[in-house]
Amino acid sequence: xxxxxxxxxxxxxxxxxxxxxxxxxxxxxxxxxxxxxxxxxxxxxxxxxxxxxxxxxxxxxxxxxxxxxxxxxxxxxxxxxxxxxxxxxxxxxxxxxxxxxxxxxxxxxxxxxxxxxxxxxxxxxxxxxxxxxxxxxxxxxxxxxxxxxxxxxxxxxxxxx
Length: 161
Known about the structure:
Shape: elongated
CATH class: Alpha Beta
Strand order of the largest sheet: 1-3-4-5-2
Number of strands: 5
Structural class: alpha+beta
CATH superfamily: Hotdog Thioesterase
């Protein structure tokens, strides 16, 4: 994975997309076991359609959120850090569907000796229907290992300097 640097960020720059899915019942069952949520609408089609009256088995909202945060952590790794993150699910995602996670840089600034970048992030179905939308702030290393005050806290990456 190639490191991104604060100096390379520009407002409006796009975050590389991440595609998740198609989601399967097995994928949801494993996630449910991990978080201890065994509500049947996340793995039982009959329950989901007859009792909860939804079209199919529903992907966990928390799973959608974790995939949205993964978009960011994959992008800033290995030396960047997700500092702030929030999101809101707008519609349900069902078994068999996929989600394309996207984002863009909205602001870059330095605060308390950190190189910060604010981002808008979202996930959409292949038809463009928005599933989730969110915001984040990430901290990025300097290409030159210099923070706002000029302190060298991070060793520069000689290969990419």
